[in-house]
Amino acid sequence: MRERTIASHFVRAALGGARRQGFDYSGLLEQLGISPELLEEPRARLAPEQFARLIQGLWLALDDEYLGFANAPSKPGSFAMMCHASIHCRNLEKALQRGLLFYSLFPEAPRLTLSREDEWVRLSLDDARLWDPDHFLTESLLVIWHRLGSWLIGQRIRLEQATFSYPRPDHGAEYDLLFPCPLSFGAEHSSLLFHSRYLSMPLLQDERTLKHFLERSPADLLSRPDDGDSLSSRLRRLLSRDSSHWPDLEAVAAHLHVSPQTLRRHLREEGSSFQELKDQLRRDIAIYHLGRADLSLPQIAEQLGFSEPSAFHRAFKKWTGLTPGAYRAREL
Fold this sequence. Notes:
The chain is α+β, with helices and mostly antiparallel strands. The chain has 18 helices and 7 strands. The protein starts with 5 loop residues before the first strand and ends with a helix.
């Protein structure tokens, strides 16, 4: 319920390769409850598990884990074989090197490299030759390798920087969910920078845990945004502890031992605000319940702190472009 929802942009972007190949995906969308109305509304959001099922469905339908964005397809099962090849390495550095070596055996595969920069390590992607107008494959590959590495060592790898070989895209506001670190656009390469200390860490996973991991990954890695260490993420976790009680800014500031003015300033520096965070969380909780039959619309409104269902109706349409009733009708 507390997971961040996925912007409809990523659904449209993920379908780009299928459109390019002339694949009719209308049946798949209908099966997943993704309506044309939701797909065409820029403000609409999807539940993470719904997005994961879409990616898995596209992989199977297109017979390509690159979803039609690379110069040659990657047969379903390639990612799993790479993981099996890497899982017995003694540390993260060896596992990443072996994983990258695995994909280098395919001449047309997107090229990823690992390089040292003093105490830092940079994972770089050569995305110059990809057919990837919405940068979906570039984003996906960087996210997957980062989160795979974090899973292997049992702790989140803190990113110091993410660079991209293209200008900031229209959906750039969503990048804080993908890459919670300083961002640089128009760079020479698309890459991730992190501290080299992670490379020497031993792998905490094995064949048993890998089997469970591969039941949903890497689609699951793409569908679960990285909350990171930002103040906005910390506040979201704090607010989501009890969605029936919504503390005001003063109470949250007191909990964090800062003044309300300081809290506002720090959030402004991150490009956010307290009200925006509350609205995003309420939007995501609403979408969670609308996708299920556990609560009625008035009950959802009450849980989210709205005095009247009509106020919830107006707010939800402002957040997503759809009414709660219309959204539930598409989901159930």
